[in-house]
Fold this sequence. Notes:
The protein is built from five helices and ten strands, in the order ααββαββββαββββα.
Amino acid sequence: MAKNLENNVYTVLFATGMVLIVGALLAFVSSSLKEKITENKRIEKQQNILYAMGINENDETSVKFVSKSVVGAEFSKYITKQLVVTGTEAVEDPNAYLIDIKKEAENAKNPNYKRKLPLFIGEKDGKTLYIVPVRGKGLWDAIWGYIALDEQLVVQGVYFDHQGETPGLGANIKERFFMDDFKGEHILDGDTFKGITASKSNADPKNLNKTDFKVDAIAGATITGDGLSAMLKKDLAMYVPYLKTLKK
């Protein structure tokens, strides 16, 4: 007798079988690619940190990272020390760049958890730079980046990226015209932390005033800009107590 393919039991068994097969295949692929994915994340993070320091292959307008073939060597060359910061104290950790700041933020919701704050110290052209990772929320999803500060806590470079901001609008946080505006910006007013705001009302279109704690916002990307401003104030503030001890 032929099987009744419309039978509910057969349908459930078939669907269950397909779920198990597809699940097993996905698990196998994920396991097989795990090392490659981890390595790509490491390379991307090192490229982003170096970019914020001004170590890149940019031309006049484009964003070009140090190539994958040399990024490891360049990272070792320019990053002289990696720290984990807590308050005004810091301990050296050569693997600080592997710290997942998203997970750290989640863990920190537990009041008993001691949050790990990675900080990268670099040397470029005889100048010491402190590179701070930041992460926040844009319009649609996560935004993140790196801020390079000198010993006076003046911004020397940034790199921003996003998970899914609107092309041509919020996605422009990773474009040169926006990121370059941050160079030279101050984050302290005397001894008071101010951060940097992406402002729609900034009366400084050429961004000549570097002590107003503002850069021009991206037109049509208000929520992304607000999220970026909040990210900078929230995450930089956690590092300020330690960074002030370095200020000369």
